Amino acid sequence: MIPLRDTIPSSRVPICNWAIIAANVAVFLYEASLGRRADAFVQAYGLVPRDFAITNLLTSMFLHGGWLHLLGNMLYLYIFGDNVEDRLGHVRYLVFYLLCGAAAGAAQAWTSPHSGLPMVGASGAIAGVSGAYFLFFPTSRVVTLVPIFFFLQVVEVPAVFFLAIWFVWQFVSGVAMLGEKSGVGGVAFWAHVGGFLAGMVLAPALRERAAPSGWI
Asked: What's the predicted TM-score (pTM) here?
């Protein structure tokens, strides 16, 4: 399923969300411009679990492994981030995003502490945004592109269903990966799980008090 948009408009311009998207794109363009030096750049600023560094928790979430990696992450951030920023406020949203990204990176590093491969991507932080959206907007629907046999169908899926299925898939996949060799790359499932749970914990504490409530 490919999300296209949600059905709840935000009431204010999501300046932080747009700034985060712009920062991710800018860093990726710089990364792509490095050519053969890009690998060294990613190794230096990605999060390498066996050489864990706090600063790299932050820098790693602005790096990406390719155009599809970047575009997929930015699509999710574009769809869900504006509403969460609307509920938290601009500055709190930025703090929330960075904390979720850090929690996600730490969760992944904890499950593969001996890995020498750099972890990169905004998906852990975006998982946190998704966790907040899950709590704040229980009645929202996600306009989704769904392949049905040989055809593509656009349908509206309840956001809580869409995000719950996504989270369960990340958790099951993460459990299946436990015990695998830490040097093997792939999707950082535990970063997604950790980020989503961090978002659910942090969002209620950071939301603006005057905001209308969803499930919380």
From this structure: 0.90
